[in-house]
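Reviewer 2 asked us to include a model.

Predict the structure of this chain.
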Amino acid sequence: MKLILPKLLLIPLLLIGEQALAQETERDLMDVQKQTIDYASPGVRGMGRSRGIVIGYERLPQFDMESESDHPEVGNGRARVRRHNKFFVRALAPIMNKPNNKLILGIDHKFEEFNFENVSPASYSLYRNLEDRNLKSLGLQLAFLHSFDDVRFMLVRAKGELNGDYTRDNVNVSDYLKTTVDLAYGWKRSPDFAWGVGLQLGYTFGRQRIYPGIMYNRTFNDRWGVESIFPANLRVRYNVSEKTLLYTGYRIEGASYNLYASEPPLSQFNDIELRRTDIKALLRLEQEIYDFLWFAVEGGFRQYYRHRAFDVVGSRDELITNTLAGAGYIGIELYAVPPRKLLERSQNR
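Predicted model (structure tokens):
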């Protein structure tokens, strides 16, 4: 009896030990699963690789511009725009790159300019104030992508821009600062399908407002797919090959610039605000040059939705209503993407 009793007591201890070992093994398996889980993101199979540095130029040829104002001193005007140029440089870099948390820093600089035909001291005041003047934008943004699991994800982006005709000598942050905030929540249903809902506080339609949006990214097969944040943009994608992508669709663009009016009669208002919104129907080709280096050519038709000038920044009362004729446009881009070896290395970790 004395020998049997210790053995009987040993059986529960062994069972407890086996249960603890099983729990520890289960925890280890869960840790491995957490490390190897494919966390959700907005991207789907077949989309182009993420971009690091982008340099782009866009040009619109000649088109007519008409202006109307109820202010008796400002009056009405009409002119022909010889060209409308846009240039931009953008750089994006991850400052945190964990499997379920990514923080991306972005810096961009862009400007656009109008060149009119036969501008003289007698020309309409707005055209004289816009002629050869760079409407600049210098921006800094932070984007945070958090993946809750392999299905749900959240995206937050905050951006500040200095928009206007400032120079190094007269720039005042409070006068030219424009802020944009994006919030989105989405679901990755499969490697070929992701969708989400969100809000933007921004200038897509000229004046800063809150705009809803629906993200819809889907790849239907090895060739066709859709990439969209409705209503701001929608593109149908055709994968010619791994190195060649074709797109067609539309994009809505908007901006707000603060201008110092030096030419009378607009000079009586000192600072005015120019807001624009245009819609572009586009065709786009993206082509790999060498592994990490790509270029894109885009063309289509641009139709302005709104183009207004305001005598007070942030006002709802229009000083000048501009009507710009629709015109074709052409743009080119050169950009860098992560090399394939780097992507393969990160996927195999």
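The longest helix spans residues 4-36. The radius of gyration is 28 Å. We have added this to the supplementary material.
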